Amino acid sequence: QSYCHRLQHDMYFLTSTSRLNEQVVDKIVLQLNRVYPQILTNEEAEKFRNPRASLHTRLSDLLKHLQKKGDRHCQEFYRALQINAEQLFNDLPSRKILKTPDPTEIDTDKKQYMLNDRGPVFFLACFSMAAGLALFWYCCNSETQVIARARRILGFSPIIIGRHVRNICMLYLEDIPRN
């Protein structure tokens, strides 16, 4: 779709009330006047920046003028609109049509499937729960050799398990033989 056709399609959207304000239109006209190659001459820029005419009239005349000039001029208008009013540029009807995929096309992009979207905190919580249950099951076994091994492992692990947690586990292991 050519830029002229897109501009014709977007014309009503752009000229409707409160879409573009005076300052944005002036910035766009100045950019079209100063860009290389020069899209608007000085006289044309003054005509489209005339504060005596209503904003709707000036904008309508500008869009019609650009459509008469050709595709390159319309393309530069879209570039100026994107620079000076990006949110409005993204909301244009022609942009929405371009973003909508054609249902007859074959989608070559493979979607990436996320197995778990809950994040790393959820993973750490589940892993900690599993490790805690495994340690508890290992320590609650009635064999004394298991308790001695657990005491050795917990005694040499101040880096892995915090001191307070290690002390609680050691007290628990000392209480098991008493019961």
Overview of the structural elements:
The protein is mainly α and 179 residues long. It folds into 2 domains: 95 residues, Death Domain, Fas, CATH 1.10.533; 36 residues. The chain starts with a helix and ends with a helix.
Measured as a percent range, the helix fraction is 55-70%
What's the name of the CATH homologous superfamily of the largest domain?
Answer: Death Domain, Fas
- CATH topology of the largest domain, which one? Death Domain, Fas
Report Rg.
35 Å
Low-confidence segments, ≥5 residues, pLDDT <50? 104-113
The outline comes out as rod-shaped
Biggest sheet layout: none
Number of contiguous helices? 10
Instruction: Report the CATH architecture of the largest domain.
Output: Orthogonal Bundle
Keywords: Disulfide bond, Endoplasmic reticulum, Membrane, Mitochondrion, Transmembrane, Transmembrane helix
Membrane topology: Single-pass membrane protein
Subunit structure: Associates with BCL10 by CARD-CARD interaction.
Protein name: Caspase recruitment domain-containing protein 19
